[in-house]
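Quick one:
INPUT:
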C-alpha cells in the first residue's frame, strides 16, 4: 500500500507542497511571537497577537467549511495560499526593508488577517485528501501526511531559530538604522515563498471524478452551515463521536497547554525540561502515526478510541507527581504514541464516514472542537491551578478522562461504531 501511495501523482504533488508549506508555517510560528517580544517585551502584547489570530479562526471556521463544500477544498485552499503569501510577504518586506514602519497595531491587523486565512485553510486542508486520493489509500495517506507534519513540528522551530540567530533579530536597532532583524525577515520570506510554491504544486493536483459532487450554489452560506450541522446531527455515529470529543476537549483539552509548562518549572529544571518533555511527546506522536498504518480490523473504531482514551487517562494521572525528566518522558512518550495513532484513525474515519459534499463542514466542526473549546478549557485549568496542586490537577483530569471513556462505553453506542472501510468506486489518478 505504501509503494502504491507514492506512485500516486496526486499524492506526490500534494505532499511536496505540504512539506514546504508546513516548514514555512513553523518558521512563522516562531518568528512572529519572537518579533512581538523583541518589539515590546510584553507577554500581554504577545497574548493579544495570538488571540487576534485565534478568535477569528474559531468564529469563521464553520463558514470556511461551508465554502469548502460549495467550491471544493482545492479552490478554497488555493485562495488561502495566496492570501497567506500576501500577509506573510508584507511582514517580510516590513522587517527587511521598512522596520521603522512596523507598529503593534499593524501587527494586530496582520495577525487578524492570518487568523481569517487559517479559518478557511484548515477545513480545506483537512478535506482535500478524500477528493484526490483513492479511498483505500486514505489511511496510509493520512498517516504519511500527519507524520510529516509532526516531523516538521519537531525540526521547523529549530531551523527557524537558527535562521534568526544567524541573520539577526534586533528589530529596534533595525528601526533606528543601527542593526538588522534580517533573520526574522528571512523566516517570513521563506514562509511567503513556501505558500507560492505550494500553490503551484496544488495546481498540479486533480480531483478524482467521483469526489466532485455537484455543489448547491444557490444556498446561503449560513444556511449551508445550519444544514450541515443538522445533517451531521442526524447521523447517530457522527453525532455520538462529536459529542464525546467535545466533552473530552472540555475536560482535558487545555491541560497540557497550561499545566505542562508549570510542571517543568515547579517539579523539574525549567525550560530545558519542558523542551525534553515536548520532544518526547512529539516523538511518541510520530511513532503512533507510523503505527496507524496497521489497521485493527477486528476491533471497532469506537471501541479503539475509548480504549485509547482510557489508557491516556491512566497515564496522565501520575504526571503531576514526577520528580525527574525521564519519568515525564516515559509517560508523555506513551501518551504521544496513543494520541498519534488516534489522530490518524479519527481523521480517516471522518473522511470516510461523511458524504463528500458535507466533508468541509464536518471537518470545520471537528476542528472547532479543539481550536475553540480546548482554549476555553485552558482558561478554566489556569483558574483551577490557583486552588489545587499540579498533582491534583493531573490526577483529576486523568480520572475524568477515564470516567468519560467508561461512561461512553457503557451508556452510549460508541463502542459499536465500526470503521467506515467499505470502498467506494473512484477513478484512479
Amino acid at each position: 500500500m505504501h509503494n502504491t501511495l507514492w506512485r500516486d501523482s496526486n499524492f506526490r504533488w500534494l505532499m511536496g507542497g505540504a512539506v514546504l508549506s508546513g516548514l514555512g508555517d513553523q518558521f512563522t510560528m516562531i518568528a512572529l511571537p519572537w518579533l512581538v517580544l523583541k518589539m515590546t517585551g510584553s507577554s500581554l502584547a504577545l497574548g493579544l497577537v495570538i488571540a487576534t489570530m485565534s478568535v477569528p479562526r474559531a468564529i469563521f471556521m464553520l463558514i470556511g467549511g461551508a465554502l469548502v463544500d460549495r467550491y471544493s477544498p482545492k479552490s478554497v485552499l488555493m485562495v488561502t495560499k495566496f492570501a497567506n503569501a500576501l500577509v506573510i510577504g508584507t511582514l517580510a518586506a516590513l522587517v527587511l526593508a521598512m522596520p521603522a514602519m512596523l507598529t503593534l497595531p499593524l501587527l494586530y491587523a496582520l495577525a487578524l488577517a492570518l487568523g481569517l486565512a487559517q479559518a478557511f485553510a484548515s477545513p480545506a486542508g483537512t478535506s482535500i485528501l478524500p477528493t484526490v486520493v483513492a479511498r483505500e489509500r486514505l489511511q496510509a495517506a493520512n498517516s504519511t501526511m500527519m507524520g510529516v507534519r509532526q516531523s516538521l513540528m519537531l525540526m521547523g522551530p529549530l531551523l527557524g531559530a537558527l535562521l534568526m540567530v544567524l541573520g539577526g533579530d534586533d528589530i529596534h536597532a533595525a528601526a533606528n538604522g543601527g542593526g538588522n532583524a534580517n533573520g526574522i525577515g528571512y523566516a517570513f520570506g521563506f514562509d511567503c515563498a513556501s505558500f507560492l510554491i505550494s500553490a503551484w504544486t496544488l495546481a498540479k493536483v486533480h480531483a478524482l471524478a467521483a469526489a466532485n459532487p455537484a455543489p448547491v450554489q444557490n444556498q446561503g452560506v449560513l444556511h449551508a452551515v445550519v444544514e450541515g450541522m443538522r445533517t451531521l446531527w442526524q447521523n447517530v455515529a457522527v453525532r455520538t463521536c462529536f459529542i464525546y470529543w467535545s466533552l473530552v476537549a472540555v475536560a482535558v483539552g487545555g491541560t497540557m497547554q497550561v499545566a505542562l509548562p508549570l510542571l517543568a518549572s515547579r517539579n523539574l529544571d525549567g525550560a530545558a525540561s519542558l523542551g525534553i518533555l515536548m520532544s518526547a511527546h512529539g516523538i511518541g506522536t510520530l511513532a503512533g502515526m507510523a503505527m496507524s498504518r496497521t489497521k485493527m480490523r477486528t476491533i471497532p473504531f469506537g471501541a479503539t478510541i475509548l480504549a485509547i482514551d482510557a489508557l491516556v487517562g491512566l497515564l496522565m494521572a501520575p504526571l503531576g507527581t514526577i520528580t525527574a525528566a525521564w519519568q515525564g518522558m516515559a509517560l508523555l512518550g506513551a501518551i504521544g504514541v496513543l494520541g498519534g495513532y488516534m489522530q490518524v484513525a479519527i481523521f480517516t474515519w471522518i473522511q470516510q464516514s461523511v458524504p463528500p459534499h458535507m466533508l468541509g463542514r464536518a471537518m470545520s466542526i471537528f476542528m472547532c472542537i479543539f481550536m475553540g473549546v480546548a482554549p476555553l478549557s485552558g482558561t478554566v485549568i489556569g483558574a483551577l491551578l490557583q486552588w489545587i496542586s499540579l498533582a491534583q490537577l493531573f490526577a483529576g483530569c486523568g480520572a475524568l478522562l477515564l470516567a468519560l471513556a467508561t461512561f461512553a462505553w457503557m451508556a452510549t453506542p460508541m463502542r459499536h461504531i465500526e470503521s467506515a472501510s467499505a470502498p467506494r468506486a473512484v477513478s484512479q489518478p
